[in-house]
Design goal:
The chain has helices spanning about 5-20, 25-30, 45-65, 85-95, 110-115, 115-120, 135-140, 150-160, 175-190, 210-215, 230-245, 265-270, 290-305, 315-330, 335-345, and strands at about 35-40, 70-80, 100-105, 125, 145, 170-175, 195-205, 225-230, 250, 275-280, 345-350, 355, 370-375, 380. The protein is an alpha/beta fold. The protein has two domains: about 30-150 and about 295-365, 3-Layer(aba) Sandwich (Rossmann fold); about 150-285 and about 370-380, Response regulator (Rossmann fold, 3-Layer(aba) Sandwich). The strands form three sheets. A seven-stranded mixed sheet has the order 7-6-8-9-10-13-14, sandwiched between helices. A five-stranded parallel sheet has the order 2-1-3-4-5, with helices on both faces. Strands 11-12 form a two-stranded antiparallel sheet.
Length: about 375
């Protein structure tokens, strides 16, 4: 990617050209714009995630456009948290020849269902979903990549808190691909940790009432309750669990990493709950011992200053954009094929943490990105 030239250099060059009667080559050297499609949940059940994704993209695009010659433009589409509309949006964006890559939101099934459409058009699609299949090149194809949480990493972090305790564990998970992956990963991880799953309950992604589900999950009097849902649902479940006099351990999956701060009722119910999540969520509590941490701290401050608070979901979207920009930078081309091929071997320190893509593994977020967080005094904090 052509970098922003120093203003003094540009002024000097322009002066010399004017003096010699030459035509300035600067306009001819202006690189093509990078156009990216974004299919996001800006309304509906997943609007909390989609709004954070959109805010992150808008903020980072503004920052990059201010610093670089090549300008970035994002074409936004609201899928209203509807799978069919998401697929239609992706197909429409893929048909736009100006678009070099597409970023799609939290719906893993939507990305998988769009595999044929993006392959036919030869456009790379980066999903922000947690579903494992999205990152499986054999199942999803070579054009789909993932910048989102991984079930096996989240399950391993949960199990690590229960190892050697012979704990009885109840699980509540969403009834989608993300929840399916969570239940499968937890079954393996908790068995290896000598813990027993007493019951598994599923909740619809559109559910608004959780008391019956929570009561059923707690019938076996578990020592711990694992909640594998998005942030708002996790908070509701925590409130219902405490109303039911559950005094065991609350463990959240990475999907619950929404806003940094909680409202009063949720904060009281979730006090002491644990979650493995990228450290950027609490980077304000971390001493910046290297440039990567300083980079993440500045992002945290910029996002907070722009939107009045931080969302853990934001870094995934910003990193999806960073990967596309890095791919264009590496090849000096906005062509779809060049971007896709460069993504296959991309490694960088992102806002979420270390990112790595390989031809046989299209999941970018590495396990090292996760840190153990705890709810304390109304917000997420480092557990240590």
């Amino acid at each position: 990617m052509a970098r922003l030239r120093r203003l003094s250099t540009v002024m000097t060059l322009a002066t010399l050209l004017a003096a010699t009667g030459c035509t300035s080559p600067l306009a001819a050297d202006q690189p093509d714009d990078l156009v990216i499609g974004a299919d996001l949940e800006l309304s509906g059940a997943y609007a909390e995630m989609g709004t954070a994704f959109e805010r992150a993209l808008r903020l980072r695009v503004d920052q990059l456009n201010a610093a670089n010659d090549r300008q970035i433009r994002v074409v936004y589409r609201d899928n209203r948290s509807d799978k069919s509309l998401s697929q239609s949006n992706i197909a429409g964006l893929a048909a736009d020849s100006e678009i070099s890559a597409i970023i799609t939101g939290a719906c893993g099934e939507c990305a998988i269902a769009s595999a044929a459409a993006v392959a036919q058009r030869g456009v790379p699609l980066i999903s922000l979903a947690g579903a494992d299949e999205v990152a499986d090149a054999d199942k999803a194809g070579k054009f789909i990549f993932k910048v989102g949480p991984n079930a096996k990493d989240g399950a391993a972090a949960v199990a690590a808190q229960l190892t050697g305790k012979s704990a009885k564990v109840a699980v509540i998970a969403t009834d989608d691909a993300y929840g399916d992956d969570g239940v499968d990963a937890l079954t393996v991880a908790l068995t290896n940790a000598d813990a027993t799953i007493t019951t598994t309950r599923r909740v619809a992604t559109t559910a608004t009432e959780f008391s019956q589900t929570v009561d059923a999950a707690l019938e076996g009097k578990p020592d711990a309750l694992v909640v594998w849902t998005g942030a708002s649902v996790a908070g509701e479940i925590a409130v219902e669990a405490r109303k039911a006099d559950f005094d065991g351990r609350l463990l959240f999956d990475t999907g619950a990493g929404g806003n940094l701060f909680f409202d009063k009722d949720t904060a009281t119910a979730a006090e002491g709950a644990l979650m493995a999540f990228p450290q950027t969520m609490v980077i304000d509590e971390v001493v910046a011992t290297n440039p990567a941490k300083s980079f993440r701290q500045q992002w945290f401050r910029d996002y907070t200053a722009s939107y009045g608070g931080y969302s853990g979901y934001a870094s995934y979207a910003a990193d999806a954009l960073e990967l596309v920009v890095a791919a264009v930078d590496r090849t000096d081309s906005t062509s779809r094929g060049s971007v896709r091929d460069a993504l296959d071997f991309m490694q960088l320190d992102g806002f979420t943490g270390p990112l790595s893509l390989r031809p046989d593994d299209h999941s970018a977020v590495m396990p090292q990105a996760l840190a153990l967080l705890v709810v304390r005094d109304g917000r997420w904090r480092l557990a240590s």
